[in-house]
Specification:
The structure is a single chain. The radius of gyration is 21 Å and the shape is elongated. The protein is an alpha+beta fold. It has two domains: 207 residues, Barwin-like endoglucanases (Beta Barrel); 75 residues, Alpha-Beta Plaits (2-Layer Sandwich). It has four helices and 14 strands. The two termini are 23 Å apart. About 10% of the residues have low confidence. It is an enzyme of class 4 (lyase). This is Endolytic peptidoglycan transglycosylase RlpA. It holds the Pfam family SPOR.
């Protein structure tokens, strides 16, 4: 994933790094003993996350300070202005994500970045603020809270936490075409009702997208090994066995071996038991 500079609050100095996903690998940055990060290249978390467990953000009235809102500010020789208000903001462009490298480190307003929670980095929106983000490729939407600055590389307009990207369905791809729309909460009863309805509508819309379950048996860097496993699986099940190839920024090219679609829980359990008994892997269910 590409890396991008972030701007810290007045309590901190300008000059931290944040990360963005991209299709092409970035130019390696030489490791530095003075780096505040223990990982040179950003990556996804090592454990699987169920998108259904990722909590929604409910917009609420905001009290802002100067933390993260210094304006103007400069990064990589370019100067940026923080908008006086997010009211009326709407934009389309490319979104990326950042994850494990920055997990546990401070964001631009001094909060701690948690890649398992929904949040966002933006170059010019006031911090904090709320955005509705819609993935234009699959029409999934979520609400995020902006608490960081970036991305500062390429043509991307927003950098989401890994959890947000996962919920929007583009974590593996790295980037997605999105539409951003600012949400302003004033604390009224109608506003709170509107926030609840927005969450319900987003969840309903997301569920309306046709999604199928697959059993992922493994992901292999060697395509021949992926083919060998696939052939053995085809003997064991009448379900389709497919090889899906991705270019993972952290691990390089991976060939994912999957069985499905298979949506019946009993059949998923039986196939999983057969695969494990044959020592072909430890399958887990994914939904796409």
């Amino acid at each position: 994933m590409h890396q991008h500079l972030r701007v810290f609050s007045l309590v901190s100095l300008i000059g931290g790094l944040a990360a963005c996903s991209a299709v092409a690998p970035p130019t390696p940055i030489p490791p530095s003993s003075s780096s505040r990060y223990s990982i040179d290249q950003d990556r996804a978390p090592s454990r699987n996350i169920d998108p259904a467990t990722i909590l929604n953000v409910v917009p609420e009235p905001i009290t802002r300070t100067m933390a993260g809102n210094r304006s103007p500010y400069s990064v990589l020789g370019k100067t940026y202005q923080v908008l006086p208000t997010e009211e009326g903001y709407r934009e389309r462009g490319v979104a990326s994500w950042y994850g494990e490298k920055f997990h546990g480190h401070k964001t631009s307003n001094g909060e701690v970045f948690d890649m398992y929670q929904v949040s966002a980095a933006h170059k010019s929106l006031p911090i904090p603020s709320f955005l509705q983000v819609t993935n234009l490729d699959n029409n999934r939407s979520i609400v995020v809270r902006v608490n960081d600055r970036g991305p500062f590389h390429g043509d991307r307009i927003v950098d989401l936490s890994y959890a947000a990207a996962l919920k929007l369905g583009y974590a593996e791809r790295g980037t997605a075409r999105v539409e951003l729309e600012a949400i302003i909460a004033n604390g009224s009863d109608s506003d709170r009702a509107g926030a609840r309805n927005r969450i319900v509508n987003l969840e309903t819309g997301n569920r309306a997208v046709s999604r199928e379950k697959y059993l992922q048996v493994g992901a292999f860097s060697d395509v021949n090994l992926a083919r060998e496993v696939s052939e053995k699986l085809r003997v064991m099940t009448k379900r389709p066995v497919i090889i899906s190839t991705i270019n993972n920024m952290a691990s390089g090219v991976l060939h994912r071996v999957r069985i499905g679609p298979v949506n019946d829980p009993g059949e998923i359990r039986r196939i999983t038991q057969s695969v494990v008994a044959a020592s072909l892997g430890s399958p887990y269910t994914i939904t796409e």
